[in-house]
Amino acid sequence: MTSPIPTVRWAPSPTGRIHLGNARPALLNWFFARRHGGRYVLRMDDTDVARSTRESADGIERDLAWLGITPDLLVRQSERLELYDVARDRLIASGRLYPCYETEEELDRKRARARLLNKPPIYDRAALNLTAEDRARFEAEGRKPHWRFKLDGRPVHFKDLIKGPQTVNTASMSDPVLVREDGTYLYTLCSVVDDIDLGITHVIRGEDHVSNTGTQIEIFEALGAEAPVFGHHNLLTDADGQGFSKRLGSQSISDFRDEGYEPMAVAIMASLTGTSLPIEAYETLDEIANRLDFSMISHGAARFDPAELDSLNARLLHVLPYEGASARLSALGLEGEAMWLLLRENLRKFHEIAEWSRLVTGPIEPVIADEDRDFLALAKALLPPEPWDETTWSQWTEAIKAATGRKGKALFLPLRLALTGRHDGPELKSLLPLAGRKACLDRLP
């Protein structure tokens, strides 16, 4: 019997823009699928009708594509309700799903009472003792049941792909609600049913889901299915150590895109922060997939550093070949490999090339100090005839030095300020041949 194709899923709720914390499992699942020749399923957990929107779902697809992820399959839970109905009925028939009629206020009082008695605030399973007459009376009062899954109440053992052997004791947990009073489903049941139906072999997600895994393994077993392999990674936090959250308005992936960051920079920071794989310039996601083993993921928190993102973004641009930049340059009305190779090392974000290109194409505003005017006028007179190459700068400055006696900063800085209007920038020996003699004459007094 052949082994199933490794199949992973990433399952966002389309209730807003995804952030770096969401991108982390999206990317780690992608790396696993690519490394093992597997399949990647994008599952929209959109059963929360009140909060889920198609606009958010479309935005998630755009963000994934921008990061470089192309799912093999897209499914929407809102289109799979019949599968959940079948699973619900099976669990009811087997006695694992039972109706409860307590209101939220009554449940709150029960939890408060348990705390006063120094007992864990878990559900007391009172609904299991209801008679048919009790249920009829509640329904006559207009109450509609929510449905809880009856846990085995035992230690559930599993080998975590990242954290190693794990045990979750479901005896210390409340029987989870799988169906709300209005008949809609909660994540826990839908996720298990989808994993079975889609043949998910590996579930890679944040470590905040470890306790959920014990519950879900029991549901897999109750439905007669083998649970997938689970892997729980450390969570990404912001610079202050706080978790990323849609509710708190954490910076979204689309925000980073709009601010001009490279998708690879964002992907590297989201996935490799908190691992032993160095944060450096990688050319492709596949390169990371082939190098990242899950044993490299730390068991401690992964703290995102915005300054490190800025540095990485610049480093990626500094090594970006012309072939990778040409289409983007054309969109800005720019062209020329020599110009790109000269100016790329000055970029922090790609759009800055439009400003830097003016050093070659003009116009620029020369910066000329009064005390340097005579010096620059002489330099202008000594400007060599074309054709120019990278030796032109040294020939010219040697002639200026011989004529004026100036050297060092007193020689070079006035020339740089006049020719570029800046204290920083590319080497002038490379800039001069690109700008040309006419542009240099126009910039000198």
UniProtKB/TrEMBL annotation:
Enzyme class: ligase
Pfam families: Anticodon_2, tRNA-synt_1c
Keyword Cell cycle: no
Start and end residues of each Glutamyl/glutaminyl-tRNA synthetase class Ib catalytic domain: 8-310
Motif 'KMSKS' region per UniProt: ranges: 243-247
Gene Ontology molecular functions: glutamate-tRNA ligase activity
Position of sequence motif 'HIGH' region: 12-22
EC number(s) given by UniProt: 6.1.1.17
Residue sites binding ATP per the record: K246
Major location (coarse): cytoplasm
UniProt name for this protein: Glutamate--tRNA ligase
The encoding gene: gltX
Top-rank taxon: Bacteria
UniProt keyword list: Aminoacyl-tRNA synthetase, ATP-binding, Cytoplasm, Ligase, Nucleotide-binding, Protein biosynthesis
Record family assignment: Belongs to the class-I aminoacyl-tRNA synthetase family. Glutamate--tRNA ligase type 1 subfamily.
